[in-house]
Amino acid sequence: MSAWIGAALAMLPPLLLAVIAAGRGPASKRLAAVQMASAVSVLIAVVLTFVDDQSSSIDLALALALLSLPAVLLFAVFEERWI
After folding, report:
1. CA nearest neighbour of 17 among 39, 37, 44
2. Measured between alpha carbons, how far is 65 from 44 in angstroms, rounded to an integer?
3. How many helices (H) and strands (E) does the chain have?
4. Cα four-point dihedral sign 19, 21, 25, 27
5. Which 3 state secondary structure label does DSSP give 58?
6. Sign of CA dihedral 58, 59, 60, 61
């Protein structure tokens, strides 16, 4: 097992905890958990780029990083308006 695969596997527990935290607790903590889950997902996508040794797949990580903040803001609007 290479070091990159180990790094990707090491980031799975924080992602799982962020997903669990996004489903429970007050709205402000859920919002922070969603933002953390998106940040960890970007890191996992970058690490998996090095695992596959394909430089073109870093575009997925870049797109996820650019779209995570607007997605969290839309989640906040949804929380405020309908829940």
Report:
1. 37
2. 11
3. 4, 0
4. negative
5. helix
6. positive
